[in-house]
Amino acid sequence: MTVRFSEIRAMPGQPFTEGCPTRVVLDHIMGKWGVLVLLSLSDRTHRWGELRREVQGISEKMLAQTLRVLEADGLVHREAYPEIPPRVEYSLTPLGRDLMERMLPLVEWVAIHSDAIVGTDD
Amino acid sequence: MTVRFSEIRAMPGQPFTEGCPTRVVLDHIMGKWGVLVLLSLSDRTHRWGELRREVQGISEKMLAQTLRVLEADGLVHREAYPEIPPRVEYSLTPLGRDLMERMLPLVEWVAIHSDAIVGTDD
DNA sequence: CTGTATCCTTCTAGATACTG
DNA sequence: CAGTATCTAGAAGGATACAG
């Protein structure tokens, strides 16, 4: 194993204890919609409407909320073009790209093993 | 970037579309408590009471529920010893250990960057 | 096209009490 | 010690309508 959790836990600030900032970030990026939006953006820049279609099942409300949180976290960049009709493009910030480099191997694993896992029981 | 999402998306079964098994697995392992329980177990085998203490803030109900889901998924192994008082030990299965190898680098990233992220805004 | 605002339902999850 | 059962408050999330 490349990293051990005990080493991570021993880092300054005691990550993943109650009330710790890591818990908040974990909720943002590991939440149902956070992951799916970040995945879409890891591919390329997307417009609002594209994200609505690509992240299947997300409501406008949850898309707006998710994007606002990820933008406030500094993971997503929002670029609005003052045109009629309006055009807004969402992309990953450098920090967001750095994050996705760590997340994509995990997501790939999930894609490969999900059938077996859900097939086992659920 | 080591993997691209577009390649993952193109895999058989169209991962991460609506109703896909990957969505279910994602919810199990990326959920708030799923991650924290898996992290504790990635370190070593734990008894029920140890998990309650280590995963700070989790209720008995959520711990039981989380463990049952992860066990059904084949990620966690439950070993009950027929003693008085009873002793039950939880550990990762080989599949679970494989998963955590991909998850730990991500978790390490979160531990390192969380202060900056939450500091930015929330 | 890109959102916001509101209502309303469903589901999560914490607290409490209890059992083998 | 290792759980289960029940109840309930609150949050999450969907539908709809509307605005810039």
TrEMBL record, chains A, B:
Domain of life from the UniProt record: Bacteria
Pfam family, one: HxlR
InterPro entries: HTH_HxlR (IPR002577), WH-like_DNA-bd_sf (IPR036388), WH_DNA-bd_sf (IPR036390)
Transcription regulation among keywords: yes
Domain HTH hxlR-type: 20-118
Keywords of this entry: DNA-binding, Transcription, Transcription regulation
SUPFAM superfamilies reported in the protein's UniProt record: Winged helix' DNA-binding domain
Gene Ontology molecular function: DNA binding
Keyword DNA-binding: yes
Name this polypeptide is given: Transcriptional regulator
